Amino acid sequence: MKNSQYAIQERQQSPDLSKQQLLMLAAGQSRDVLWRKEVKNKPILAGVVRSARITSDWHWHYAEAHASKNAEVSFEVQAGMTFGLLYEGELQLEINGCPHSLKAEAPLAFCFSNAAPLRLRRRFKARARVHKFTLGTTGAWLTCMGLETLMCQGQPQLQKFAATDEIVTAVNSLLALPNETSVQQKFQQMSNIATLLSAAGEELDKGVRCLLKHAHAPQAPETLEQRVQACVRDIVMRENIQLSDLQVDELAKSLGTSASSMQRIAKKCFGESLLKHIRQAKLANALNAMKERNFTIGEAAFLAGYKQASNFSLAFRKAYGFSPGEISKAEKDM
Q1: pTM for the whole thing?
Q2: pLDDT greater at residue 142 or residue 23
């Protein structure tokens, strides 16, 4: 188990986490989808943070911390299922461009599944406190167990449900186990994981059955909010759109609404202006392409919607605190 110099039992103030460290913890650390060279950056999260990969199929992440500034972190989640417990606080998530806001004064459980890798984005609000636990399992494990039907084939749907005493006890028991576990403790660990994944699986199964039940029912017309979200997802994912060509008036007209209404919906859904959200999301795509697909700076600039690589580099540094050239250098050093 990797505790990253944090001890939950001691409740001591831990060293602040940089954006890169936070990304690595959120992804379970062993997934080779992130830039592995340390990046000098201002800290985002301060507090107690623990992360452990139990087997190649299961990993968990725990945080009882606060954000030191307003920030966003984007990373890839591989196919599989995720269970979460929000003890208290607020969690702002965006799953493949679809925003979700979780608030809890009492423990709240949540889960989602995905049949293909997805892009997950977290927003942090300065001084906001969050106390949460997440457990992830792989799609390969679900398939091996005959549970592949639980993996959502389309846009993942986040399921929220009340955290029972059994769920909270299982999470706390999992966190209380020592780094070096005995055979008996390993079985206890597996039992706790089974309790949590079973609860998540039951909720996801309800969602699947509900979708099948209404698959042939008359569909209500899409709301303007849904159309705006779909439009934004399309722009973010397309590689041949230049930011300079985007005009809010024209986009609003194509959806049959006004620019002010579209901006209001964007603020509600994404927490920021329409063009700022698109710009940040496309920068995240470019960052991932440079790390995962070995894109050059010029190719990444085009993907992010910039005609000039110099403008892309300036925007990239402002967003992430380091230049795109540092990624190429880091990859060559590894």
Answers
A1: 0.56
A2: 142
Instruction: Express as a percent the part of the chain with pLDDT over 70.
Output: 78
C-alpha–C-alpha distance, residues 237 and 32, integer Å: 22
Q: Any idea what the Cα angle at residue 29 is, between residues 271 and 326, rounded to 5°? A: 70
Consecutive H or E run containing 204: helix 183-213
DSSP structural state of residue 60: E
Percent of the chain with pLDDT over 90: 18
273 in Cβ contact with 263 (< 8 Å): yes
* DSSP one-letter code for 2: B
CB 58 within 8 A of CB 266: no
- CB burial class (10 A; 0-12, 13-18, 19+) of residue 154? exposed
- Distance of alpha carbon 209 from alpha carbon 255, whole angstroms: 32
Residue found under tokens 């964007």: 266
Calpha distance 169→173 (Å, rounded): 6
Q: Calculate the CA 130 to chain-centre distance.
A: 15
Domains and CATH numbers, the chain: 17-210 (2.60.120.10), 224-333 (1.10.10.60)
Q: Mapping DSSP to helix (H, G, I), strand (E, B) and coil, where does residue 151 land?
A: coil
| Strand residue runs (E) in 96-183 | 98-104, 108-114, 118-124, 129-138, 159-162
